[in-house]
From TrEMBL:
<dbReference type="InterPro" id="IPR003819">
    <property type="entry name" value="TauD/TfdA-like"/>
</dbReference>
<keyword id="KW-0560">Oxidoreductase</keyword>
<dbReference type="InterPro" id="IPR042098">
    <property type="entry name" value="TauD-like_sf"/>
</dbReference>
<dbReference type="InterPro" id="IPR038492">
    <property type="entry name" value="GBBH-like_N_sf"/>
</dbReference>
<dbReference type="Pfam" id="PF06155">
    <property type="entry name" value="GBBH-like_N"/>
</dbReference>
<keyword id="KW-0408">Iron</keyword>
<dbReference type="GO" id="GO:0005506">
    <property type="term" value="F:iron ion binding"/>
</dbReference>
<feature type="domain" description="Gamma-butyrobetaine hydroxylase-like N-terminal">
    <location>
        <begin position="13"/>
        <end position="92"/>
    </location>
</feature>
<dbReference type="InterPro" id="IPR012775">
    <property type="entry name" value="GBBH-like"/>
</dbReference>
<comment type="function">
    <text>Catalyzes the formation of L-carnitine from gamma-butyrobetaine.</text>
</comment>
<dbReference type="GO" id="GO:0045329">
    <property type="term" value="P:carnitine biosynthetic process"/>
</dbReference>
<dbReference type="Pfam" id="PF02668">
    <property type="entry name" value="TauD"/>
</dbReference>
<comment type="similarity">
    <text>Belongs to the gamma-BBH/TMLD family.</text>
</comment>
<keyword id="KW-0479">Metal-binding</keyword>
<dbReference type="InterPro" id="IPR050411">
    <property type="entry name" value="AlphaKG_dependent_hydroxylases"/>
</dbReference>
<dbReference type="GO" id="GO:0005739">
    <property type="term" value="C:mitochondrion"/>
</dbReference>
<dbReference type="InterPro" id="IPR010376">
    <property type="entry name" value="GBBH-like_N"/>
</dbReference>
Length: 388
């Protein structure tokens, strides 16, 4: 993108700067924003890409003294205190305040596009070795993980420690009370329902934390011959269905604070309490995170008694949708498979399997935060696509 500037002028008594582009479009920039984002060495530390200008020194009612077109690729502004600022055309164009430009920037920074699915899911697969040593494959993996919510990595070694390598590929793993990684297998006196042979209902992990892990990684080291099938469901797809089918139920689940608890000993001793809405929504009412784990939902429920039964009715309708045949996808991990999925979006479960005197099923698990994953995605995009 190499936009050229046709004309520049001050508007609204100097409170706005209007830029007319060579393609005929125009952009309007508030002067307070322009002054706040001066790119000179005094106001901006280029080595850190961080603002040096102290906010208390910013005049929120500032107007331009003079604005000029330095050349077709740059504008210059003189402020009332004679401070001078310059802004590159490309920099300005990317930060245009039009809805179209802002939507384009959101897409570029956050990749909000989602591909919804149900029982018809074509589970994306990429070889583990490829994403470890090939940037294009790693970029494809993380883009697909963001868009679809789940990707299967195949062909990893059937030993503990592969997830640590995967964590280093991303950046670093999320430490929790269950350790940097944790072993899902049948254990005596289990401190988590996952460490049994029983069926696991659809859930997201760790809603008892204020900031639940964004991405979950599960590596199949050993698989039982009978049972133990994995199931996943696209929670955002189900939220859309619930919102359309029963708006009142959706409103209850997206506004009621539910108590979660987790007490025990693992990596260290812990006593965690948290309040979460089953469905977290953004300003537009769109689901952005599911916080649902029936096992750790507390007996304490901090709402008026008359609101309890309507809440249960709403949750039952949501749970029925999660478990409907059209929405859930069933598959069985093979030794060497690593399933990676969006823990804020994809709910997962497991079929029961026979218990025995020996461990017949062993998964190693780990978490990563979306901030870390998105950071790696942006860096990979820059190297793969040669983009800033």
């Amino acid at each position: 993108m190499n936009p050229g500037i046709q004309k520049v002028e001050a508007l609204d008594a100097g409170h706005f700067v209007r830029v007319e582009w060579e393609d005929g479009s125009e952009s309007h920039y508030p002067c307070v924003w322009l002054r706040d984002n001066c790119q000179c060495p005094h106001c901006f530390l280029r080595s850190a890409r961080a603002r040096r200008l102290v906010f208390e020194d910013l005049d929120v009612n500032i107007v331009v003294k003079e604005v000029a077109l330095a050349d077709r690729k740059k504008i210059s502004i003189t402020w009332p205190d004679e401070h001078a600022s310059e802004y590159e055309a490309e920099w300005l164009k990317k930060r245009c305040f039009s809805e179209e430009a802002r939507a384009e920037m959101r897409e570029d920074l956050f990749l909000p596009e989602r591909q919804y699915w149900g029982s018809d899911l074509q589970l994306p697969e990429i070889p583990f070795e490829e994403i470890m040593y090939n940037d294009e494959s790693a970029y494809k993996w993380l883009c697909t993980l963001k868009k679809v919510g789940i990707v299967l990595l195949t062909g990893a070694a059937t030993r503990q420690g592969e997830l640590v390598k995967l964590g280093h590929r991303i950046g670093f793993l999320r430490l929790t009370f269950y350790g940097p990684t944790w072993q899902v297998q049948d254990k005596a006196d289990a401190n988590n329902v996952a460490y049994t042979t029983g069926k696991l209902c659809f859930h997201t992990d760790y809603p008892v934390l204020q900031h639940p892990p964004g991405v979950q990684l599960l590596h199949c080291i050993k698989q039982t011959a009978a049972g133990g099938e994995s199931q996943v469901v696209d929670g955002f797809n189900v939220c859309n269905k619930l919102k359309k089918q029963n708006p009142q139920a959706y409103q209850i689940l997206s506004s009621t604070a539910v108590d979660y608890t987790d007490v025990g000993v693992d990596y260290c001793d812990f006593a965690v309490q948290c309040k979460q809405r089953i469905i977290d929504v953004d300003s537009r009412g769109q689901a952005v995170r599911i916080n649902y784990n029936n096992a750790t939902r507390d007996t304490v429920f901090d709402i008026p008694a008359e609101k309890v039964r309507p809440f249960y009715a709403a949750l039952k309708e949501f749970d029925d949708l999660l478990n409907s045949v059209e929405h859930k996808f069933t598959y069985k991990l093979k030794p060497g498979d690593i399933v990676t999925f969006d823990n804020w979006r994809v709910l997962h479960g497991r079929q029961s399997y026979p218990s025995g005197s020996e461990v017949t099923r062993h998964l190693e698990g780990a978490y990563a935060d979306w901030d870390v994953v998105m950071s790696r995605l942006r860096l990979l995009r820059k190297s793969v696509l040669n983009r800033d």
